[in-house]
Amino acid sequence: MDRILGIAVTWARRIGWAATGLVVTTGMAWADRPREWQLGMQDAVTPTQEKLAWLHDLLLIIITLITIFVLALLVYVCVRFRESRNPVPSKTSHNTILEVAWTAIPVVILVVIAIPSFQLLYFADRAVEPDMTIKVQAHQWYWSYEYPDEEIVFDSNMVPESELSDGQLRLLDVDNRMVVPVGKKVQVLVTTADVMHSFFMPAFGVQIYGTPGRINETWFQVDKAGVYYGQCNQICGLNHAYMPIVVEALEPAAYDAWLADAKTKFASDDSAAGRRLAAVASR
């Protein structure tokens, strides 16, 4: 008996640790960067991503109900119309009610999906009366950020694994982050200097392509201070996996302090162009 109790206690502890690990892992999954064994999307920190998450949940409910209904229908048909029960099959070829139903019901479902989909597309399309503008230019394989109203411009390169500091993330951290104020509507103009790239920020609900010869527009408004990670998700060449995006959202006072320093450090003059050329030459 003692041995049985000991085994039971041991397994109970294992199950408890497994459950605890699952809870912790699930909690970590909802974060501002990709996590190991992550399920679901990152936490929404912009109005666009909140609407995307809501639409995702709606679609999940709809597809689950459809799947359950189709499964139940298949089981019913297999049982009700099996050969042993129906040795002489029905020769019915048309049923007006059924034909109307399986045409009308999908149409209604598509309308239910289409209305919030189009609303979200127009909501996320472009900024209305933005508080600030940032121009993002993609290169093989790094990003350039320009704040035209503040006359600052700088490049953002991935930190090599050999130069990572404590707390920095492999393949995700950069030397210069895009910095934005919390609660401000940021207009983002995306273009590219060479091939197609993609500006993708999961926590923002933002994914837009940079296309040679044109400027594409998107926007976001970060409602929570923090550091958020994204990547180029358009296969753009040999080092496609090495051009991460890091956006740091600061409270207004902290952003003003950063901006004052950035105007000295990243002034958009001939020296900035020289820094970019030197960075390209060094690679």
Write the layout of secondary structure elements.
Elements: H1 2-29, H2 47-80, H3 96-125, E1 132-139, E2 142-147, E3 152-156, E4 178-181, E5 186-192, E6 197-201, E7 206-210, E8 216-220, E9 226-231, E10 244-250, H4 252-265, H5 270-282
Parallel strand pairs: 1-5, 4-10
Antiparallel strand pairs: 1-2, 2-3, 5-8, 6-7, 9-10
Order of helices and strands: HHHEEEEEEEEEEHH
Can you tell me the CATH topology of the domain at 132-282? Immunoglobulin-like
> What is the CATH architecture descriptor of the domain at 132-282?
Sandwich
The count of β-strands is 10
> What topology, given as strand order, has the largest sheet?
3-2-1-5-8
Structural class determined from secondary elements: alpha+beta
User: Mean pLDDT, nearest integer?
Assistant: 83
Uncertain parts: 1-31, 270-275, 277-283
Radius of gyration: 27 Å
- Report how far apart the termini are: 70 Å
